[in-house]
Request: fold
Amino acid sequence: MNWSEIDLSQLMRYFWVLAYAAVIGIAYLVGKLAVRKRLARLREIAPYLGAQAVSGFLGPRLEGVKGGRNFVVAVVPGGKNSPPVIRLTIDSFLPVPFSVQRPDMMTGLMGVFIKQAPTGDQDFDDKFFASSPDPLSFAAFFADSRRRAAARRLLERGYARVESKKGKASANMPAVELEAELEPAKISAALDDLAELSA
Reply:
């Protein structure tokens, strides 16, 4: 092969293909290492929660049973400008779908299109935004002060949204300090509150 006969444009085409493949490969490896690190952390805390750490297509998570109900603790990866999210899910016995969240810019926009569902507790209604397709059933359900207290504790603990729909209750926390929030006592207390809210 004579090097003088090689077309520089052909070489550059291969260079960009190889560079692109290298970037994809590095991103894959970084992602794989992050998943392994999260799975290792979940394996550390699993015994404290009576759970099992599993990994699959949906990423690493804990699966267990609390009070006879299945629960999942998942860590959803963050984006470029957003932190990872801790998502707790537990089987729910609630007949009415709803969501309760701390007010933010989105709830201000939602308030234009979605009417706030009152709970009957003015302090709670002033502090949090609740919505439900069935506001009367929601108000009756949330008349129980223990449920409001459980939702309040979750939201004040840093969870941004608590909801129940299709037989599952969930709470989502954007976790800037992921390791600090993945403490067994914190996760266990949040699961207790979510279980109390959805019983």
